[in-house]
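Final report, closing paragraph on structural work. Over the funding period we assembled a curated collection of sequence-structure pairs, and we close with a single example.
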Amino acid sequence: MSDSPWYGTIDEGKPLVQGEVIHSCPILIPKTDSDLTKTDKNVKIIIRRYNVIIMSQSCDLRHDKLDNVLVCPLHEIGKAVKKFPHLKSRKESEALERGYLPAYHLLNECEISGSERDYSIVTFRDVYGVPLNILKKSIQGQQRVELLPPYKEHLSQAFARFFMRVGLPVDIKGFQERLQDM
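Its predicted structure, as stored:
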């Protein structure tokens, strides 16, 4: 690994932080046949478990200002290329490595003993809100690992870039031709 470590450990009892990796996090997903437009408060849910990374701000987590914590799925590279096979191509993998694919963010491998993990990809297309109390219970007894600065801020910036994209209805036409004529 480099001289600037990507990961560190978090002592038990410390608050959750942005960039913290949560293994087997319970994600509550409403069943697709549930009618959420009705006033009935009983909704069928599916509980899926994903490895995730916390995207909510550490200051909000530290001061319990959130009921729900934003998390994004974290896929180890082997599983990621099975789920997203286009990432295996040389062109796409180089774009991923350079940060040119807005929906994905590449993280370095983790070599912390007991928390080893291969290169991983954070996906921004699926963002989940996990109740804070459920998240706190799910980390009990786990070794806690976080992404360290500046990599944590780099992830946060990539997340923001994904959501601030603006699609224009019409491309600018003729610019390339005009530029070539100069």
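The chain has one domain: 7-166. The two ends are 47 Å apart (CA to CA). We thank the funder for supporting this effort.
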